[in-house]
Specification:
2 domains, five-stranded mixed beta sheet, 423 residues
């Protein structure tokens, strides 16, 4: 802004200088006419004021010029007088403006000759080192991953295959077919087993981690694609039907089907509640539910008055409830990260994380991980509320934290990548 103001002042001075020069040029004809126009016969008959005696002793040229000028008609004399005054004023203005313009021009030339460097940005730290690349054979956009200390589980929807990886050896130890050939679904792990929802078939499969076999199948409505568990209960959301399904893990039966705001696309359990991400929920972008009574505890507005949408996974840590956000009005497809305080059910932080981020996030007490499929993965520090570290690894899809590492599915080369955190 300071440079723009200085340039404006320079242009203003230049304009005034040009105006003064034009005035002087316009005055010259009057001055020239006053000094060279010969007297007409009528003028000669007109007797002007008598020249004082002391002037008669001056130079002849001066006397002749003054006598000629004074002997002219009054209209010519006024023109001559006005021209002289304008010429003197122009000279004064030119001198004063030049005193300001010359330093300004010198300053402008100095500014132009000095390159304007961009504001440096903080160099991001290295978030971790790649510990392994595990070839799966097929990884699609609808691939879900979850990790624990004992195993990493990957569900590839289009193939209907669940792959188990041993984090100690980084080797595939089992492949389990659960059916389906479409978008697949999320995975949940608890004491009862590994639960995998299949959107296309409308089923939830329980896998016994001891035998790596499917030991139970629960029938639910097709479209249920996102899953979590609370003690003794499974929860699944159905985006097309805008419903939340509650399932008793002991009886393997659906015990409740609850309505949700528009387009629920993610859910999680933490802080004693079920949290549901409603992509087009408006003022109810996140729903908080009591898992014992099935009653809504809060409808949380994540839009901040800016047409923001909840955009996928919800993760709960000791710092709060973390929600991926998509700015629907941004031309750059801007993505954000919101923190909700579970004590007040209000949004306390809104963090920009860049464009085209995936809806899948991972979080623990050290930070929140987000993935840009074009550039890599990034770690957000919950204290400074900024991206502080990165791993240049494009092509990422879904993520999970477990066994001391970050696990990332990559659609670009059909692999699961282990990233050993630098923390």
């Amino acid at each position: 802004m300071a440079r723009i103001a200085a340039m404006g002042r320079q242009l203003d001075n230049t304009a005034r200088l040009v105006t003064c020069i034009l005035l002087c040029l316009l005055t010259l004809p009057f001055v020239t006419a006053g000094g060279t126009m010969p007297p007409t016969p009528d003028d000669a008959d007109s007797v002007g004021p008598e020249v004082p005696a002391d002037l008669d002793s001056g130079p002849d040229q001066w006397v002749d010029t003054l006598d000629t000028a004074l002997s002219r008609p009054p209209s010519l004399r006024r023109r001559l007088f006005l021209g002289v005054v304008m010429l003197m004023v122009g000279v004064v203005l030119v001198i004063s403006i030049l005193r300001g313009v010359v330093p300004a021009v010198r300053s402008a030339l100095t500014t132009i000759s000095t390159p304007i460097l961009p504001t440096p940005t903080a160099t991001l730290g290295i978030a971790g080192q790649i510990g392994a690349n595990i070839q799966l054979g097929a990884v699609h956009d609808h691939t879900f991953i979850i990790a624990s200390a004992a195993a990493v589980w990957v569900h590839d929807g289009p193939t209907g295959i669940v792959t188990r990886i041993d984090p100690l050896t980084n080797k595939i130890v089992a492949k389990i077919a659960i059916g389906g050939n479409d978008v697949g679904g999320e995975i949940a792990i608890d004491q009862q087993g590994v639960w995998v929802v299949n959107s296309s078939t409308g089923t939830i499969s329980r896998i016994d981690p001891q035998s790596n076999r499917v030991t139970a199948t629960i029938k639910v409505a097709p479209g249920n694609g996102f899953l979590t568990s609370s003690p003794g209960t499974l929860w699944a959301v159905n985006p097309p039907k805008n419903t939340l399904t509650k399932i008793d893990e002991q009886t393997l039966r659906v015990v409740a089907t609850l309505s949700t705001p528009t387009l629920p696309i993610g859910l999680s359990y933490g802080a004693g509640s079920i949290w549901v991400c409603n992509r087009e929920g408006g003022a109810a972008g996140v729903t908080r539910l009591d898992p014992r009574t099935d009653r809504i505890q809060a409808q949380i507005d994540v839009s901040e008055g800016r047409a923001l949408w909840c955009n996928g996974d919800i993760k709960i840590t000791a710092q709060g409830v973390w929600v991926p956000i998509f700015d629907t009005l941004s031309n750059l497809r801007q993505h954000l990260l919101e923190r909700i305080d579970p004590a007040t059910n209000t949004v306390t932080d809104l963090i920009s994380v860049g464009a085209d981020m995936n809806g899948s996030i991972a979080a623990d007490d050290h930070g929140i991980w987000v993935s840009d499929p074009l550039t890599g993965v990034y770690r957000v520090d919950p204290q400074s509320k900024r991206i502080v570290a990165e791993v240049a690894l494009p092509g990422g899809d879904s993520m999970a934290l477990g066994a001391g590492a970050l696990w990332l599915t990559r659609t670009s080369n059909n692999t699961v990548v282990r990233i050993n955190s630098s923390l």
